Structure formats: C-alpha cells, structure tokens
Amino acid sequence: MITKSKVVVVAILFVVLALFAVFVADERIERNRMATQRITMRYGALMIGLGAGSTPYGITPVDFNMAMGSELAARLGLRPAFFTSPWERIFVEFDTGIYDIVISSVPITPQRQAVFGFSKPYMATNTLTVEPALFGIVIKKENDRLTEAVNRALEDMFNDGTILRISMDTLGEDLVTQARQAW
User: Fold this and answer.
1) How many CA atoms lie within 13 A of 78 on its CB side?
2) Which of 16, 27, 28, 40 is spaced 20 to 30 A from 83 at the CA atom?
3) Is the CB of residue 120 less than 8 Å from the CB of residue 108?
4) Which ranges in 4-143 belong to alpha helices (H)?
C-alpha cells in the first residue's frame, strides 16, 4: 500500500537526484567553458597546475609545490585549486587556460622564457645541471597583474621566512642546505 509518507520520500529522492544531475551537468558545462574561454581565477580560486612525476630533487616535491600554492593563494585572497597533470602535458594544458599558474619546480630557461611568463625565482638547485637552476612559477606572459601579485607575495614569503619553513617542512634540511649554497 502506498502511503503519503512513501510518496513524500520518493518525491524528495527525485528532487535530490534531479539537483545532483543539474549540478554535474553544470560542472561539465563550466569546465568546458573555462577551457574554451580561458577563464581563470574563477569562483575565488587560484587554479594551480602541478606536474605529476616531476622529480628534480630525486624525490617527489608535490608536497612542497602544494604548500607553496596554498600559501600563495592565501596571500592573494584566493583558495587553491590543484590540478595534477603528467609533466609532458602540463604546459599544453596551461596554454589552454585550465590553470592560472604552474608550480612544479620549473627551471627558468631562455627557451621557456620565450614562451611563458615567470615569477621571480623562488628556489635554486645545483642537482639538475652543472649550473645552478632557478625555479619560477609559470604565469601567462600577458597577465601582468597576476605576475606582479605573485612576485609581491613571493617577496613577502621570503622576507617572513615562509619559503624557508615550507622548504624545511617538505623537502628536508639537507636539500634546503644544498639549495641555499646554489643560490
């Protein structure tokens, strides 16, 4: 026998499922729109690309990159939104506008500077090459406002010891000592 309470429960379940379907469809439409229109920093989030499998230190520096991204977003008044991609695809995806920035221990090279914008260097290492490598945050060349904001935040993070603390917490004292010597 069908009672009023059963009808109400079924109706509520139907409404919840319908709302969930609309949310999923909206999310797919929004992701497509973001990629095609190159919209970034949406909904108060800094879209951060992280390269999976990037191991310039012989370890996986994802924790360092995520800690840097979280702190940077907070200093910009945004929340971090992380997207992990294979290193081979991260810059292609960055070009599509999915990410605002890439934090993935990216060495600043003349070849990359010809294509991408970079923040001021935030780390150095001598473990990749004979010459010390300087790492920067990848930013669109034409996005001067974001570049300036990121550089100000990085400078503040240097001055108040945040970058050193994040480095010690995630990479370890030995690696930080090597990086300081390279710097």
Assistant:
1) 22
2) 16
3) no
4) 4-37, 62-75, 87-95, 110-115
Angle at 71 between CA 174 and CA 154, to 5 degrees: 75
Same domain, yes or no: 101 and 16 = no
Structural domain count, the chain:
2
Q: Under a CB-based contact definition with an 8 Å cutoff, are residues 104 and 142 in contact?
A: no
| pLDDT (tens digit per residue) in 62-94 | 678 889 999 999 999 888 998 888 888 889 889
CATH number for the domain harbouring residue 93? 3.40.190.10
Q: What domain range includes position 61?
A: 42-182
First to last CA, the chain: 78
- Given the structure tokens 């930013």, which residue do they identify? 139
Alpha-carbon distance of 96 to 116, in angstroms, equals 13
Q: Each residue of 116-164: pLDDT tens digit?
A: 999 999 887 765 555 667 889 999 988 888 999 999 999 999 899 888 8
